[in-house]
Amino acid sequence: MAKLNLLLLLVLVVCALGLVTSQHKARKLFSELERAQARARELDVEYGKLQLEASTWALHARIERVARDTLGMRTPDARQVRVVGVAGAR
Q1: Mind listing the pLDDT tens digit for each residue in 23-72?
Q2: Cα–Cα distance, 78 to 55 (Å, whole number)
Q3: In b/e form, how buried is each residue of 1-32, taking b as 16+ CB within 10 angstroms?
Q4: Are 80 and 74 in contact (CB under 8 A)?
Q5: How far apart are CA 84 and CA 87, in angstroms?
Q6: Cα within 13 Å of Cα(78), Cβ side
Q7: Coil, strand, or helix at residue 58?
Q8: Strand, coil or helix: what is 53?
Q9: pTM for this prediction
Q10: pLDDT over 80 at 90, yes or no
């Protein structure tokens, strides 16, 4: 009877340790998941900001201003423009 009680006590302790270990691991993984989701939200916000910045850099008025001010380009006079057609096109 004493051996059976010791065996049952040993099984109980092993099960209790397994339960504690699995709960600790689950909490640790949940914490890691929360951190990863927070990082994903931060990256989504940053991506939105970068898209807005890219669309701002690509505005036609900005490109024209940079071409005019930085590169010294200008719009040609209408008399200087030549339209070239494609040979064989109708």
Answers
A1: 999 999 999 999 999 999 999 999 999 999 999 888 888 889 989 999 99
A2: 30
A3: eeeeeeeeeeeeeeeeeeeeeeeeeeeeeeee
A4: no
A5: 9
A6: 0
A7: coil
A8: helix
A9: 0.57
A10: no
